[in-house]
Specification:
- This protein has about 350 residues and is an alpha+beta fold.
- It has 3 domains: about 1-55, Molybdopterin biosynthesis moea protein, domain 2 (Alpha-Beta Complex); about 60-165, Alpha-Beta Complex (Aldehyde Oxidoreductase, domain 3), CATH 3.90.1170.30; about 170-320, 3-Layer(aba) Sandwich (Molybdenum Cofactor Biosythetic Enzyme, Chain A), CATH 3.40.980.10.
- The protein contains 11 helices and 19 strands.
- The protein has helices at about 40-45, 65-75, 105-110, 145-155, 180, 190-200, 215-225, 245-255, 290, 295-305, 310-315, and strands at about 1-5, 20, 25-30, 50-55, 60-65, 80-85, 90-95, 100-105, 115-120, 125-130, 135-140, 145, 160-165, 170-175, 205-210, 230-235, 255-260, 270-275, 280-285.
- The two termini are about 40 Å apart.
- Pfam families: MoCF_biosynth.
- InterPro entries: MoaB/Mog-like_dom_sf, MoaB/Mog_dom, MoeA-like.
- This is Molybdopterin molybdenumtransferase.
Length: about 350
């Protein structure tokens, strides 16, 4: 690559994309990498402030920004991901399906600690839609040492930095506890909220049982739903520490191993998560899920829907970013809630 005066550039090959920006009008590529400069291009180039141009001269051990960006994309790529066109030394990673986007943050950080290269992503464990932009890769200079890209490849190893997991075809069973609902004193307004959230991840409801505040009834309802083929069981009501709130103890009696009763998330501190021996998940949802726009349920459900088993450590790490500010209108998931991990 060498620098020459634009007025002397006719016949030379431009080695990088040149962007034209007019405020509130246009921001686009005026000249593409590889373009051979013509006489009529000179006034246009000068009008966008390009009095000098960098023209391509291949050097041993050096990579053009576009070549380097493609190598960085190769470090990221995985099933259900696709690249954008290489433009101005940048390749974007695009979702090819709806699913749960996950990033190996430790390896990403190590690569971004290197000079002159970068990979920017959405947060890990982020629910995305087909066509969403997930990440962008590029190098900072127009040319970069090939050795730096080899080092990035070594850090990445054989496993891609990113994955996009499709949602499973799951069936959920819902247990609604509470004497006031069981006896028809008040209407069940909790279950419709849960069903709406399940629908976002194509989870169907295979059974719904309303039970009194009696441990045996709760255990039997859970057992029946599981025997009927539920892939996920959700219990609502009776999740506080009051003596007559029996849902947590009943979940334990049903045979599930409790992973966490309580979470460092607001709203959602009284959330319960457990698994049966066959790894069927069961959740106890606190009352806030019924009225708050975004809660612990919204952080956990996409992972469960994608078949990711959640550990106690996963729940513990949710404390960083686990405070919802209750914005009006709610912007979740396009906000900081749950973005600590």
């Amino acid at each position: 690559m060498k620098k020459i005066a634009t007025v002397d550039a006719v016949g030379h090959v431009i080695c990088h994309d040149i962007t034209r920006i007019v405020k509130d009008v246009v921001k686009d590529r005026a000249f593409k990498k590889g373009h051979i400069v013509r006489e009529e291009d000179i006034p246009v180039l000068l009008s966008i402030g390009k009095e000098h141009l960098y023209v391509w001269e291949k050097e041993e051990g050096m990579l053009h920004e576009n070549e380097a960006a493609e190598i960085l994309y190769d470090i990221c790529k995985n099933e259900n991901l696709k690249p954008s066109e290489v433009k101005e030394g940048k390749v974007e990673v695009i979702a090819d399906i709806d699913g749960l986007f996950r990033v190996d943050v430790d390896r990403l950080d190590k690569i971004n600690e290197m000079e002159e290269i970068m990979i920017a992503t959405r947060h890990t464990n982020y629910p995305v839609k087909k066509g969403d932009k997930l990440a962008g890769t590029r190098v900072i200079p127009l040319v970069v040492e090939e050795e730096k890209l080899k080092k990035a490849q070594e850090i990445a190893g054989n496993n891609p930095l990113m994955e996009l997991l499709p949602y499973k075809n799951m069936k959920a069973g819902i247990v609604t506890t509470g004497s006031e609902v069981y006896k028809g004193i008040i209407k069940d307004t909790f279950t419709p909220v849960v069903i709406n959230k399940l629908n976002e991840y194509n989870i169907s409801v295979c059974g719904h049982k309303i039970v009194n505040d009696e441990s045996d009834m709760i255990v039997n309802a859970i057992t029946e739903l599981k025997n009927d083929g539920a892939d996920l069981i959700i219990c609502t009501g009776g999740m506080s520490v009051d003596p007559d709130d029996l849902t947590p103890s009943s979940i334990r009696k049903s045979g599930a191993k409790i992973i966490s009763y309580g979470a460092p998330v607001l709203p959602g501190a009284m959330f319960l998560l457990g698994y049966f021996e066959d790894e069927t998940p069961i959740m106890g949802l606190p009352g806030c899920v019924m009225y708050a726009k975004a809660t612990i349920f919204d952080l956990v459900l996409p992972r469960v829907a994608a078949g990711v088993k959640i550990t106690k450590k996963d729940i513990s790490k949710m404390g960083h970013g686990g405070l919802c500010l209750g914005c009006t209108p709610c912007k979740y998931p396009n906000c900081g809630f749950g973005k600590g991990v």
